[in-house]
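step 3/5: co-fold with nicotinamide-adenine-dinucleotide
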Amino acid sequence: MKVLITGGAGYIGSHTIIEMIETGEFSPICVDSCERSTPETIDRIEQITGVRVPFYKLNICNKDALFRIFEEHKDIVGIIHFAAYKCVPESVEKPLEYYRNNLQSLENVLEACLKYKIPNLIFSSSCSIYGEVDKLPVNEDTPMGAPFCPYAHTKQIGEEMIRFFAQVNPKFNAVILRYFNPVGAHKSGLNGELSPDKPNNLMPIITQVAIGKMKQLTVFGTDYDTRDGSCIRDYVHVSDIADAHIKALQFLTEKKNISNCEVFNLGSGNGVSVLEMLHAFEEITGVKLNYVLGDRRAGDIPAVYSDSSCAERLLHWSCQYGIADMVASAWKWEQNLKLE
Ligand code: NAD
Ligand code: WQD
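step 4/5: write tokens
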């Protein structure tokens, strides 16, 4: 069964393609502009799996270009739509670019579903749609919060677009997956996150400080009302996130969905503090991190973690990897990158 993976050269998309090939049930086709990734990722996927994935390097905001893929492959049964910009501070700097890219691409994908009668869509959403929450853990009934940045807003609007589209297209089925904090790399260390020169997220900053690409790490805030004063997040291994996409596709193709637009949280369910993550890294790798305790980062919420029981119950998904695997694989990947 052919499945189009938009943003398939990116971090989560490439790990999903690897899992998909290993499962053997679906045959991925990748489309990516490589604006935030590199075509070499397709080589990495081949190195790991032995399979050369069909790859289209194009921007899916270009509807004609996107539609040409469906003209060429009339038997695509589903789309996993990863392609988007994802950097919170950049979205505050360049709101229109975020609205244009993240929403235009989704609109084109939905139009393709209509025109080419593609029955199944998996959409990458984010825990950022919840914003500041009163009650933890967060489940799918927790309402969306006020959007705290354009990026989170594009995910909120994206979810609503899909929901309204599904209402008037009963043969169309969607699964919206809300990821918490995906980290780690493929267990081989041959594929992982290609961060920008100045990463924003904790794990790539940790590995870059450890390898010497960055001088120092600042713990953003140690006076939160948490067990050690630093923020708590729900880190989840990227290969577990990838696996959830295969399970979501199976759920749809086996027609196990009740509504034609289902939503699942994807997190480990465990809150881990920034300091706990730093100490876990030091313990597991034996590398001391150069870090300082600093002020809070604007916009950060003290704690968020997921209730993923819906995904466990309906998708039969649960995390296979823990913090030690996340840290060890991210570190292996960073070390491999240095050797390249
Ligand atoms: P990524 O930047 O590594 O991958 C996204 C890919 O999409 C990139 O390869 C980029 O080149 C491509 N892309 C972007 N716009 C495109 C367009 N218009 N046409 C074609 N290709 C385009 O990001 P990721 O971490 O793999 O995230 C994948 C998805 O998951 C995104 O939708 C993101 O918002 C969502 N998400 C990510 C996280 C996270 O922490 N990584 C958390 C929650 C949700
Ligand atoms: C994690 C924790 C920081 C860097 C973001 C997006 C969210 C989702 C996941 C896409 C926080 C702390 C970080 C540093 C630190 N992405 N930190 N020093 O902010 O939870 O979520 O990525 O959808 O939408 O908002 O992730 O990795 O940036 O931060 O102390 O140098 O690490 O304060 O508590 P975040 P993060």
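step 5/5: annotate
The chain has a mean pLDDT of 97.
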